[in-house]
Amino acid sequence: MSPTLETIFHHRSIRKYQAKGIPQDVLERVLEAGTRASNTGNMQVYSVVVTQSAEMKAKLSPLHFNQPMIKQAPVVLTVAADVARFQHWCEINGAERSYDNFLWFVCGCIDSMLFAQNIAVAAEAEGLGLCFLGTTLYMAREIAQVLEMPKGVIPITTITMGYPAEEPALSDRLPLKAVVHYETYRKESDEDIRQLYYDTDHSELTKRLLEENQLPNLAQVFTQRRYTKKDNEAISAGLVALLKENRFLE
Length: 250
Fold this sequence. Notes:
By secondary structure, the protein is an alpha+beta fold. The protein has helices at 3-9, 24-35, 54-60, 68-72, 84-92, 102-125, 135-138, 140-146, 176-179, 190-196, 198-201, 204-213, 218-226, 229-245, and strands spanning 46-51, 75-82, 129-133, 153-162.
């Protein structure tokens, strides 16, 4: 197996970090690797804010529900969909303002995540550990305010990064046939779905979660505890409002 594949297959989320910082040359190499990702029209409609100071981490921490890794990690990266820079370039060159619409928010999301994933692979190849934070979209408006992002720039994901102080087990994944379809989309029966999720439903982690939550199956842990309908709808409404403020939606 190639070193690149070794890195990818050994990915795990790291939430505890050593006290030492990341050398600037390593950080810049990792970030530059991010810019080599594919992107829409070679327009790179994304940006990243690098947070290293204790003061700024303290401001971001409550917006990520005070997860300890925000303050502990030497570097916190907030990756954002960013059409503001490209539109500014268009305007000073007499080109029409064309990118404050929903299509380009989606393009910005895609570009942001391709950029972020390249960063992740490069960071792990450099011996660093990292963790993606899903809380970014929940508090996108507040994070944008703290980081002084202008209109047209919306936080999409956050990555904590540093030298690992733990080595957790690899997370389980669905079997390949669960996500790969050849030629056309394969429709699954109820029994097919049960088989695809069998290992997940019967893992030791799932058994522990069912005991902790006093629920009969993992699906209900997701819908009743982790990502509830009420929370999903509230976060969705907030995100839609933010997109309207930024003219991505009318």
